[in-house]
Amino acid sequence: QVQLEESGGGLVQAGGSLRLSCAASGRTFAIYAMGWFRQAPGKEREFVATISWSSGRTSYADSVKGRFTISRDNARNTVYLQMNSLRPEDTAVYYCARSVATMSTTPRNYDYWGQGTQVTVSS
Fold this sequence. Notes:
- By secondary structure, this protein is an all-beta fold.
- It is 0% helix and 49% strand.
């Protein structure tokens, strides 16, 4: 069984930065791509970023491109999301997830999810 746990969320002012972490259990962590999604109350889950296993190739939603950076440390079974220049519209619960398809941007191609961490950006 795979377990994912996000941390690092909190309340920040617009223009500030925050780093999210996702710790994964299991020895198979390194063979899967990982992704970050976010969801605001009453809204659909939205793709944020993903990172491949084999090459470390990354992909970002247009809304966060240039501001967010996804990375991973396979030795520590951890994936990160560095968020800079935060905006109020970035406010959401952020989830990390394990991908079953390379560079997927749809939640249906992720099979394990963390419980989420709240990010709130004040204006």
